[in-house]
Amino acid sequence: xxxxxxxxxxxxxxxxxxxxxxxxxxxxxxxxxxxxxxxxxxxxxxxxxxxxxxxxxxxxxxxxxxxxxxxxxxxxxxxxxxxxxxxxxxxxxxxxxxxxxxxxxxxxxxxxxxxxxxxxxxxxxxxxxxxxxxxxxxxxxxxxxxxxxxxxxxxxxxxxxxxxxxxxxxxxxxxxxxxxxxxxxxxxxxxxxxxxxxxxxxxxxxxxxxxxxxxxxxxxxxxxxxxxxxxxxxxxxxxxxxxxxxxxxxxxxxxxxxxxxxxxxxxxxxxxxxxxxxxxxxxxxxxxxxxxxxxxxxxxxxxxxxxxxxxxxxxxxxxxxxxxxxxxxxxxxxxxxxxxxxxxxxxxxxxxxxxxxxxxxxxxxxxxxxxxxxxxxxxxxxxxxxxxxxxxxxxxxxxxxxxxxxxxxxxxxxxxxxxxxxxxxxxxxxxxxxxxxxxxxxxxxxxxxxxxxxxxxxxxxxxxxxxxxxxxxxxxxxxxxxxxxxx
Length: 487
Ligand code: HEM
What we know:
By secondary structure, the chain is of the alpha+beta class.
């Protein structure tokens, strides 16, 4: 359920306040050459055309009518949607510095420890310092030794505990695997089963997704807080943040500092450089940034690979011929596996977990595609649409086909699963190499079969979700030990 579903009943209340206090919109009758867009209603803008629909699909369909740059109003908030790689290139190359800010809202402020994080904090000294700390202290070559060790231990535990020959729910398997892995690289031990206020970390991250998906204060920057209070949103947000804060505080309090380089975690690496609130902000970004995105990518990759036996056999042949007699594979092995890299890239193209990049806030008047974008406009890049654009990806854009990358050189903004410009994802290398290693291990010693009675055609790849795109039904597969590994 998203904010649009909560929306309509609350409109009446807001209308009252709006009529009482509204002034003429600063955008109206401006004489600017604004991008085209669907007609809008007073107060709610275009929300009624999007309510109850999958946001990125609905917006992609609208863009077929109104063009690759389109103006919408999400409540009183103007939002420009970009749906072509040419215009994304213009946004990121020519105007990156102007679009480096993120929109402000009371809701986001609460969710980000008062903007003490990286991903949502306004562009400036603080966000630059935080990003630099994450990249230089955590996502560096020295720390990768420690990540490698944790990943190998987690993989061993998954491979040892798989119920071979029985049906496994890969959504559950990957979710708990990635939560455990993330807790260990952040705080040095597993917190996946710890409950605060009756809630586990994974449930908190799920709740956070809903809370991040947009609130009244994002649609009505001035008066949305009234609806948030009246609708119970504020109470829900406070309850969530109290649990989440409690868990992050617990991780910080219980942390045992490591002296060995190959055992260090995020808290070891960053604590001396950041305040406590900044520590919680950065820990939260790693959990929010890494857990759902990586676990969903793994589910999608396995679903598409198993659905396409030709691809699975090609991958297994590459992995098995490059693995020597090792028990488990690591990055030094996946470096020799180009087809595996294409399969991960194709998964990120075809099922990139973030259909829209994190919104940008335009801070001065610019032009994109010849249209005026005014200060205070949100800029949304439809990453999902770019990656399926038949003009770029040809007639098989809607097919999972890793082989396309064997010959194709991809322009920088033909696909944007990790965003672009100075606010792009700093976890890009870490995430892709982790996903490659996990997939290599899963396909190395295991043959994955479909549950009894099911055929490849039955394995559905229907999507759902707005902030993140997930597979609608859980992925159920049967792991069978590969011949040479059978005991
Ligand atoms: C498959 C995995 C991942 C995907 C698909 C992904 C995707 C994204 C996207 C689309 C953005 C927004 C970029 C933009 O606005 O241009 C982003 C930002 C970010 N991601 Fe990731 N991410 C992944 C993994 C990670 C990991 C592992 C980390 C941390 C270890 C991370 C940390 C961040 C942070 C801190 C930002 C905010 C950057 C900023 O605003 O300066 N992400 N990510």
